[in-house]
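Continuing the batch. This is chain 6 of the set; chains 1 through 5 are on the previous pages. Same settings as before, nothing changed between runs. Recording input and output for traceability.
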Amino acid sequence: MHTIFKVFGVSTGAIPILHNALEQPGMRTQEGYRPPEGPSIPNSNGVVPYAAIMKSEFHPQSGTYTVTIWFNLVIKRIDGTPFYPPLSALEEVFKSIDLQLLPDSKAIEAEAEHAAAEKAREAARKDLVEKIVNEIIGETSEYDIVNSKTGQIIIPARRKITRTLIMLLSRHIADLDLSTSIGTDDRVINILRRFQSEQGSAQQR
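Output for chain 6:
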């Protein structure tokens, strides 16, 4: 019998401290125990750990980890009788968690702010897609519409503009090559130039 829980906002320095706590001799059985059921937890010659880190996920935005920890609540001996890890051993894990792995409030705030910013950017992009759809869907341009930074052709010249192409276009709007020397008489280019200017002004506010 086991349980699993996740701890968020774990600092880089806390990871080796927890690993060290879990590797102590008092954190595993002696020989003669069955391998635990469920997740694959290392065991050798019937020696079973009381707990183990299943996964550590790094979040570059906050510089912290989400750590998934697996606990053995009941371990069976070879003869099938139950063994309960001593409370003192589990206290060592909880002490490590309490002191080193409590979520950092600043890290949580940073994650929340990043998520909110991503949500706002996605909403703005969807709004931009609808505006562009209303203006140029079904039309064509005499010019390739190109990402000036990568050289990627987003919409080839004389290709009928579809919603799918507009969705792709919206992700590149800031980097489109729409200089005044290109397509001065091209309706599509002129409309995209206007949207590009509006997006630039909005980002500066």
